[in-house]
Amino acid sequence: MEPYSNSNATCLWQRILWAEGAYATNYDGEIFEKSDIDGYFGWRTYYSTIHLQRQLGADRDGLVGGETMGLANKHMYQIGGSAARGKTLYLRYQGKKHSFDLRRNAEGKYVFPDANDDSRQAGYEYLSCG
Questions:
Q1: What total number of domains does the chain contain?
Q2: How far is CA 61 from CA 25, 51, 89, 106, in A?
Q3: CA 45 to chain CA centroid, nearest Å
Q4: Which three-class secondary structure state does DSSP give residue 31?
Q5: Where are the beta strands (DSSP E) in 52-121?
Q6: Residues 18 and 98: beta-carbon distance below 8 Å
Q7: Which of 83, 91, 98, 124 is 20 to 30 A away from residue 13, measured at CA?
Q8: Residue 128 lies in a domain
Protein backbone atom coordinates (compact mmCIF):
# COMPACT_ATOMS: atom_id res chain seq x y z
CA MET A 1 0.00 0.00 0.00
CA GLU A 2 1.07 3.57 -0.64
CA PRO A 3 1.86 6.25 1.96
CA TYR A 4 -1.29 8.07 3.08
CA SER A 5 -3.35 5.06 2.01
CA ASN A 6 -5.53 5.39 5.12
CA SER A 7 -7.07 8.83 4.89
CA ASN A 8 -10.07 10.91 3.94
CA ALA A 9 -8.66 11.00 0.39
CA THR A 10 -9.08 7.20 0.33
CA CYS A 11 -12.60 7.68 1.67
CA LEU A 12 -13.42 9.92 -1.32
CA TRP A 13 -11.94 7.31 -3.69
CA GLN A 14 -14.05 4.61 -2.05
CA ARG A 15 -17.15 6.75 -2.61
CA ILE A 16 -16.22 6.75 -6.31
CA LEU A 17 -15.78 2.94 -6.28
CA TRP A 18 -19.25 2.63 -4.74
CA ALA A 19 -20.75 5.04 -7.29
CA GLU A 20 -19.24 3.03 -10.15
CA GLY A 21 -20.39 -0.33 -8.77
CA ALA A 22 -16.83 -1.68 -8.82
CA TYR A 23 -16.20 -5.33 -7.93
CA ALA A 24 -13.38 -6.78 -5.86
CA THR A 25 -13.00 -9.44 -8.57
CA ASN A 26 -9.75 -11.01 -7.39
CA TYR A 27 -10.62 -10.76 -3.73
CA ASP A 28 -14.18 -11.86 -3.06
CA GLY A 29 -16.10 -11.00 -6.23
CA GLU A 30 -18.50 -8.81 -4.29
CA ILE A 31 -19.60 -5.35 -5.32
CA PHE A 32 -18.05 -2.44 -3.40
CA GLU A 33 -20.80 -1.40 -0.97
CA LYS A 34 -21.48 1.94 0.66
CA SER A 35 -20.73 0.29 4.01
CA ASP A 36 -17.19 -0.43 2.72
CA ILE A 37 -16.37 3.29 2.73
CA ASP A 38 -14.08 3.54 5.74
CA GLY A 39 -10.95 5.38 4.57
CA TYR A 40 -8.70 2.30 4.78
CA PHE A 41 -7.07 1.22 1.51
CA GLY A 42 -7.21 -2.53 2.11
CA TRP A 43 -7.42 -5.48 -0.26
CA ARG A 44 -11.10 -4.93 -1.09
CA THR A 45 -10.38 -1.35 -2.15
CA TYR A 46 -7.25 -2.44 -4.02
CA TYR A 47 -9.04 -5.08 -6.12
CA SER A 48 -12.07 -2.87 -6.67
CA THR A 49 -9.67 -0.20 -7.93
CA ILE A 50 -8.21 -2.67 -10.43
CA HIS A 51 -11.73 -3.51 -11.61
CA LEU A 52 -12.55 0.16 -12.11
CA GLN A 53 -9.22 0.79 -13.84
CA ARG A 54 -10.12 -1.96 -16.30
CA GLN A 55 -13.46 -0.25 -17.00
CA LEU A 56 -11.82 3.17 -17.39
CA GLY A 57 -9.05 1.91 -19.67
CA ALA A 58 -6.29 2.81 -17.21
CA ASP A 59 -3.20 0.85 -16.25
CA ARG A 60 -4.36 -1.84 -13.83
CA ASP A 61 -1.97 -1.38 -10.93
CA GLY A 62 -4.46 -0.95 -8.07
CA LEU A 63 -3.05 2.50 -7.27
CA VAL A 64 -4.97 5.74 -7.61
CA GLY A 65 -2.56 7.99 -9.48
CA GLY A 66 -3.02 10.84 -11.89
CA GLU A 67 -4.17 8.66 -14.80
CA THR A 68 -6.83 6.82 -12.80
CA MET A 69 -8.13 9.91 -11.03
CA GLY A 70 -8.10 11.88 -14.28
CA LEU A 71 -10.27 9.26 -16.00
CA ALA A 72 -12.63 9.11 -13.02
CA ASN A 73 -12.87 12.92 -12.99
CA LYS A 74 -14.51 12.73 -16.42
CA HIS A 75 -17.61 11.51 -14.55
CA MET A 76 -17.69 14.68 -12.40
CA TYR A 77 -19.87 17.58 -13.55
CA GLN A 78 -20.38 21.13 -12.36
CA ILE A 79 -23.89 21.68 -11.01
CA GLY A 80 -23.42 25.14 -9.53
CA GLY A 81 -21.11 27.71 -8.03
CA SER A 82 -17.96 29.00 -9.65
CA ALA A 83 -14.67 27.41 -10.72
CA ALA A 84 -12.87 30.71 -9.98
CA ARG A 85 -10.14 30.67 -7.34
CA GLY A 86 -11.52 31.40 -3.88
CA LYS A 87 -15.07 30.42 -4.86
CA THR A 88 -17.11 27.31 -4.07
CA LEU A 89 -17.75 24.88 -6.92
CA TYR A 90 -20.63 22.40 -6.64
CA LEU A 91 -20.16 19.09 -8.42
CA ARG A 92 -21.90 15.79 -9.05
CA TYR A 93 -20.10 12.50 -9.57
CA GLN A 94 -22.20 10.35 -11.91
CA GLY A 95 -21.16 6.72 -11.65
CA LYS A 96 -22.62 3.68 -13.40
CA LYS A 97 -24.65 2.67 -10.32
CA HIS A 98 -24.95 5.77 -8.12
CA SER A 99 -24.27 9.48 -8.08
CA PHE A 100 -23.28 11.81 -5.28
CA ASP A 101 -22.82 15.54 -4.82
CA LEU A 102 -19.64 17.13 -3.56
CA ARG A 103 -18.04 20.54 -3.58
CA ARG A 104 -14.66 22.17 -3.89
CA ASN A 105 -14.60 24.82 -1.21
CA ALA A 106 -13.04 28.29 -1.39
CA GLU A 107 -9.74 26.79 -0.11
CA GLY A 108 -9.68 24.34 -3.04
CA LYS A 109 -10.44 21.29 -0.87
CA TYR A 110 -13.08 18.73 -1.76
CA VAL A 111 -15.94 18.07 0.64
CA PHE A 112 -17.91 14.88 0.03
CA PRO A 113 -20.38 12.55 1.81
CA ASP A 114 -18.92 9.58 3.70
CA ALA A 115 -20.66 6.20 4.16
CA ASN A 116 -23.16 7.79 6.54
CA ASP A 117 -23.70 10.77 4.21
CA ASP A 118 -21.91 13.06 6.68
CA SER A 119 -19.73 15.74 5.09
CA ARG A 120 -15.98 15.08 5.15
CA GLN A 121 -13.07 17.02 3.72
CA ALA A 122 -10.68 15.04 1.53
CA GLY A 123 -7.06 15.02 2.62
CA TYR A 124 -4.11 12.66 3.05
CA GLU A 125 -3.01 13.68 6.53
CA TYR A 126 -6.12 12.66 8.48
CA LEU A 127 -8.82 10.03 8.71
CA SER A 128 -12.21 11.02 10.10
CA CYS A 129 -14.60 9.03 7.93
CA GLY A 130 -15.81 5.51 8.42
A1: 1
A2: 14, 10, 31, 33
A3: 10
A4: strand
A5: 76-81, 89-94, 99-104, 110-113, 119-121
A6: yes
A7: 83
A8: no
Q: b vs e for 46-68, b when ≥16 Cβ sit within 10 Å of the residue's Cβ?
A: bbbbbbbbeebebeeebbbeeeb
Q: What is the pLDDT along the chain (130 residues), one digit of tens a residue?
A: 455 689 999 999 999 999 999 998 776 778 999 999 999 999 999 999 999 999 999 999 999 999 999 999 999 999 999 999 999 999 999 999 999 999 999 999 999 999 999 999 999 999 998 6
Whether residue 95 lies inside any domain: the answer is: yes
Cβ neighbours of residue 42 under 8 Å, at least 6 residues apart? none
Residue 76 domain boundaries: 8-121
3-class secondary structure, 14: helix
Residue type, 3: P
Decide if 113 contacts 119 (C-beta within 8 A): yes
